[in-house]
Amino acid sequence: MRLSRAVLTTILLTSPLAAVAQPIEGLYVGFGAGMVIPQNTRASPDFPTGSTHLRLVENLGAGGVASVGYALGNGMRFEVEGDYLRNGIRQLGRTPFPAAADGTVRTYGVMANALFDMDIGFPWLYPYIGLGAGYQWTHLKNLTVTQVDGPFSYATNATAGAFAWQAIAGLSFPIPNMPGLSATTEYRFMQILGGEKFDGAATFTAGGPAVPARIELHSQFDHAILIGVRYAFNVPPPPVPAAPAPAAAAAPAPARSYLVFFDWDKANLTERARAIVKEAAENSTRVQYTRIEVNGYTDTSGTPRYNQGLSVRRARAVAAELVRNGVPQSAIAIKGFGETHLLVPTGPGVREPQNRRVEIIIQ
Fold first, then answer.
1. Whole-structure pTM value
2. Which helix (H) or strand (E) element contains residue 261?
3. Which CATH number fits domain 252-362: 3.65.10.10, 3.30.420.40, 3.60.15.10, 3.30.1330.60?
């Protein structure tokens, strides 16, 4: 009982340390299996053995649990579980004579648990604690106790039940990219409150008859270390990462354009025009581009056919200057649009300086 009080006190003292609950809500299922470490169990026979306080000594065993529960979304979870524990019997101690024992102790039952998940700031780790109560059946499977070099023997294959409680402390590890699925590892302490009586048969003399005999178990204490998994059905998928800022997006570089103006009925470049073309050529080395468009235009003086040819000559003159300033010829696309696409809308026959131009577009 001292150990059970210590476990319960530890759980109660650590409860205020829980800050924010793990965001799990709705139905879940869990499974676990592992090692069972039994404490020696006090036993009382109702037949004469010379001792009224025997000790049932068990080996290390194995066990498993399966649970279904519901989480409230605020850290609290409530579940119902079924469990099964199995330990081999090593000996029945404190007998007044040397004795050998054989058989297994098989315990199974149903427990109702209340648990609390804790968010400690690590998305990959969630501690939890809990308490449970229920009913456990103990089956002394083919238990035999025989006196070494003596006539006494006792055998039983009976089952009896009693109320039980347990304390739980564990860790869950959410599995990345699998919403709702967690690996778990936990420690459990269970006490079966005792009072179970197991009917059997005892022999007291060599060749004598077997007579009805009974043994009573007092509180059973078991420790278990389990590894398992838990799956919550209503966990939403992880949020979609936010779209990167426009500045970081791999969008095409914005087009940059330059205007080169010409004298009336001319296709040669002025000094001012050469400076603009040089600036465009230099800037093309500082930006990522796929092509450089060189588009020629005229005003509305002259015939459309003449103006079309003049716009092409102007575009070629600008392209040649770009090449002279280091722009690859293969990156340049030349087009002439004649007196279409006027920068300043006019009627026919108008010598508008703003319309006599070549536009350089870096894309």
1. 0.59
2. strand 256-261
3. 3.30.1330.60
